[in-house]
Amino acid sequence: MNLTHLPTISVLSDSVTIAQLDDVKIIRVLHEKAEAAISLHGGHVLSFTPKGQEDLIWMSKEAIFNPEKAIRGGVPVCWPWFGRIANPAHGFARNSAWSLIEHRENENGVIVVLGLSASEETKAIWPFEFKARLTIEIGDELLITLDAKNTDDKAWNCSGALHTYLNIADITSTTITGMGSSYIDGLLEAKVCFGGEVLSIDTAVDRVYTQPEDTILISDAQRTLSVTNSGHNAAVIWNPWIEGAESMGDMNNDGYQTMVCVESTYHATSLEAAKVIQPNESFVLATSIKA
């Protein structure tokens, strides 16, 4: 995603500026190791391009940059739940205004830390105190870490996902390994299924893989992407295929051809069954992406 044309609002350092994209402020990182873009709306990584490479992150050409709407593509932060186990679907973090806590840089790259805390808006949806930090490390690889601390005086439950859209050359020539064989099929009413060790996609896929390896490899005709997850209990793989892409107003109709989601996920079938976080403890979920 080329953001060099966007108007600069403020210069924070040699490598970090704030730019404006429609109704959303963007943290723009231009470093000799890599370029990246992060939306403060949603704490949402939009782009990660290591030097000499194509962007590893896919963004919809029809994405809407509006504080009222989640952004299609990039790395949405799904928290304090993943899926439709409560409203809104995928939680409120991806639709919330995050703040820039700090940024620092050296010859190896740039680290950006964003914050989100409980507010009247979040408590109207989920009545708990919390303090979330999203640390985004940009260098030869991209490392995103969500650390959500329970600052309440009682325990709360949460699930979540770092919903990474990967930029691939062609879905029909892409293979995925490391996801394991057992999965819950979201297109078959959550039926538990078993597949092979190699996944090729030629139709819509919406699966929660329940025994993934920590590292999943996505290979197309041009390169292999590596996604390494921690804090997860599952990996979600998703591609909406033709009908799905056409049904979404914020996704270009041919978008399914050049993307696949491989997500670091803590999956639960309900909030009651989700991970219990005691006061002063944290829910931590991370994903690392490189070519």
TrEMBL record:
It comes from the Bacteria. GO terms for molecular function: carbohydrate binding; glucose-6-phosphate 1-epimerase activity. Gene3D superfamilies: 2.70.98.10. Keywords: Isomerase. It catalyses: alpha-D-glucose 6-phosphate = beta-D-glucose 6-phosphate. GO terms for biological process: carbohydrate metabolic process. InterPro entries: Aldose_1/G6P_1-epimerase (IPR008183), G6P_1-epimerase (IPR025532), Gal_mutarotase_sf_dom (IPR011013), GH-type_carb-bd (IPR014718). SUPFAM superfamilies: Galactose mutarotase-like. Coiled coil: none annotated. CDD domains: D-hex-6-P-epi_like. Its EC number is 5.1.3.15. Pfam families: Aldose_epim. PANTHER family: APOSPORY-ASSOCIATED PROTEIN C-RELATED, GLUCOSE-6-PHOSPHATE 1-EPIMERASE. Belongs to the glucose-6-phosphate 1-epimerase family. This is Putative glucose-6-phosphate 1-epimerase. The gene is yeaD.
